[in-house]
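Ticket 4471: requesting a sanity check on a complex prediction with adenosine monophosphate. Repro inputs:
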Amino acid sequence: MNGAAASAFSALALNPATQENLRTLGYLEMTPIQAASLPPALAGKDLIAQAQTGSGKTAAFALALLDKLNPRRFAVQALVLCPTRELADQVTGEIRRLARAQENIKVVTLCGGVALRGQRASLEHGAHVVVGTPGRVMDHLARGYLALNALTTLVLDEADRMLDMGFFDDISTVVKQCPPERQTLLFSATYPEGIARLAEKFMRSPVQIKVQAESSGPQIEQRFYEVTRANRYASVALLLNHFRPVSTLAFCNTKQQCKELVTLLQQQGFSALALYGELEQRERDQVLAQFANRSCSVLVATDVASRGLDIEQLEAVVNVSITPDPEVHVHRIGRTGRAGESGLALSLASMDEMGAVGRIEQYQKQESVWHKLDELTSTGKGPLLPPMVTLQLLGGRK
Ligand code: AMP
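Returned structure tokens:
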């Protein structure tokens, strides 16, 4: 079998209706993560797959769980745990698209920030697949609204982020209520120590799959700038005024840094908003809506909070601080330069971050290109303003 044939979906033992549906969705060839994980997943094996957003990982586990589903059995047979509501919504959408070919498969999303009552009603009407965040799923289990005794597939999606968000215990609580003979599929962009602990506790001789992290490729231009502790935030403003990207995602290592940077940017007239873990769901949704509709030009976020964000056009990514984890760096900059558009990744490093820069070079097998801050000009066009304005309509029903 040659390489091309091996990566066609027709090489898999999927039913003809699903094959046809994949064609109508335009999924002609498997992505590398799908080609590596679908054969063992369809054979019922437990899996630890290292894959990034955009790799096609959702279809990889969705096709596997759908393949085993019995639509005539009105019980939850698959559970997907995700770190955020945005991701859960995306996963639900993808599962529904892929399930179109099968008869009446019901997928229910269980996330916080939404009334329990409606979710309970959806469960009562019979769900085959549940997608949710660990806290809310646990809540439904505790109240007896959700039962997992018929479960055949458990998926932990973006497991590293769930661990970052402190969900280890919640995940454990949920997993303990799943039948031991289930299949467990774990997907994670990085492989921190906690993942090994999860695997050891909850998986049976998992097949490990790692598809080489995509290097940033030629469409992302990476530039590094040396900064000091004193001029780091001001340098972000200089970069924005120089490059004038319409939408920028600026990554900070801490929530405190996010807050400080947003304050400074706002003082300088930028339309900047912060996104970090403790925002309420409503605030988070508002921030994301403004960024998506381009009335906010700079989103300052922590890695955890930015997870699950799917932003179409992102002209630039700024690493306000260098992340100690090179895989996280690649993941951060991979947010820009999507869909064939070119992207700009600007990284600020102080002397004490040079070790981390070195690890990134080794990981990417690529030397950093350094530029000087004093090459930056503000182009004389005044402060960078967003192309849109969001009007808040408040008041009564009319
Ligand atoms: P994901 O990494 O799961 O977020 O998927 C990234 C995007 O790729 C989604 O929009 C999927 O609909 C799409 N996708 C997944 N698998 C394929 C495939 N084999 N061919 C084409 N597009 C795909």
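Notes from triage: The pocket of adenosine monophosphate is lined by residues 26-27, 29-31, 34, 53-59, 94 (CB under 6 Å). Leaving this open until the requester confirms.
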